[in-house]
Specification:
365 residues, alpha/beta, globular
Length: 365
């Protein structure tokens, strides 16, 4: 399984399409605009995962205008309904599908296998086919930096995370958050509440309240599609941060920052390749160096010396000279997670099913 798609590969992909000449010729002969369908599990608001995916398609529309037709299907629960709806979008003539949730994987993969002229991008999965590409963000690069900031601001030494599902993508985000915090304060502890939902504002707020009751004074809103956790933390005077898109307006005082994602470079390169007949399924694991993961809206309360350290580490991550998952790293059970001097490969990271030492909440069985 290949994890080699990076900014360089995205640029090469765009070049390989012949950009202006080749694409222009292809589009000029197309009888119908390319139908692009985005399917997401939650309602699309002004923040969150679905919002970030939709925003990632806006440059595609800007580039091609009426040569593409984008359909967004929101609040589509994972399972048989999603499979039926995705199948219908393809039957309706959409030849480019963005399946925007981990739980869509099996249904979307079957669509790709039955429809070789359809190109499918699948969020957060691991399966690859000739016309099927999973894509994921290296959130852990940003959450490591957030951990450094959180530890510098925490008075209790206890941090928390309200997390959606115990899948590797979110486990790695928590682990990196813990490791970044421990780089500043080795005694930091992380508690986690798994809500087992991508969208349940009431349950998410109850989870945040439970963490605050345990004296967690910085909360990581891990894959919530609403500002439910962020706004509650503002009310309670507790620092908080999130993934995907900025929620600063919901917490002007206690917003720690955002590990934001910009999917537009990847989406644009993938559509370019499809239109040129050059789409090839591959596993895209993209981060800071690819301009897909960006840490924004840092809180001004973070000490200046910590900010300097964060910027130094961020530069090393971008340059590829530092990874949050470089050993020695100890698992929560005391065994060796990563040996000293070793760095986890991307394939190991996307399969991570264990917590680092300092995460005190056991993973669900």
């Amino acid at each position: 399984m290949s994890y080699s798609i990076t900014r360089r590969h995205l640029m090469k992909s765009a070049a390989a399409t012949g950009v202006a000449a080749t694409l222009g010729s292809h589009l000029a002969t197309a009888a119908e605009p390319l139908g692009i369908a985005l399917v997401v599990p939650s309602p699309i608001g002004d923040v969150g995962w679905g919002h970030a995916l939709k925003a990632g398609l806006e440059p595609v529309k800007a580039a091609y205008g009426d040569k593409v037709k984008i359909t967004v299907l929101e609040n589509i629960a994972e399972g048989p309904d999603a499979d039926r709806i995705m199948n219908k979008t393809v039957a309706d003539g959409n030849h480019f599908l963005v399946a925007g949730s981990f739980g869509y994987q099996n249904g979307a993969l079957q669509i790709a296998r039955r429809n070789p002229k359809v190109s499918v991008l699948h969020a957060s999965g691991f399966q690859v086919a000739p016309n099927f590409s999973p894509f994921a963000a290296k959130y852990f690069q940003g959450t490591y930096l957030m951990g450094m900031a959180a530890a510098a601001l925490s008075k209790t030494g206890k941090l928390g995370s309200v997390s959606a599902f115990a899948i590797p993508e979110l486990i790695t985000s928590i682990n990196a958050f813990a490791l970044g915090a421990q780089a500043v304060n080795p005694n930091i502890e992380i508690s986690v509440v798994w809500v087992n939902s991508w969208f349940d504002p009431a349950k998410e707020q109850e989870a945040a309240k439970a963490l605050i009751a345990q004296k967690c004074d910085v909360i990581f809103s891990n894959a919530q599609d609403t500002p439910s956790v962020i706004s509650l933390c503002e009310e309670q005077g507790v620092y908080a941060f999130n993934l995907n898109s900025s929620m600063k307006k919901y917490a002007p005082k206690t917003y720690l920052g955002c590990v934001a994602t910009d999917w537009s470079p990847y989406f644009k390169a993938s559509v370019d390749a499809h239109l040129a007949g050059k789409f090839k399924g591959a596993n895209a694991f993209l981060g800071v160096a690819d301009k897909v993961v960006q840490v924004v809206d840092w809180n001004p309360a973070i000490p200046a010396d910590t900010v300097a350290k964060i910027k130094d580490v961020e530069g090393k991550i971008a340059a590829g000279s530092f990874s949050p998952f470089t050993g020695p790293i100890t698992k929560v059970d005391g065994s060796v997670g990563v040996a000293a001097g070793k760095t986890m490969a991307d394939g190991e990271i996307v399969a991570m099913d264990w917590h680092v030492k300092g995460v005190v909440t056991p993973l669900p069985k």
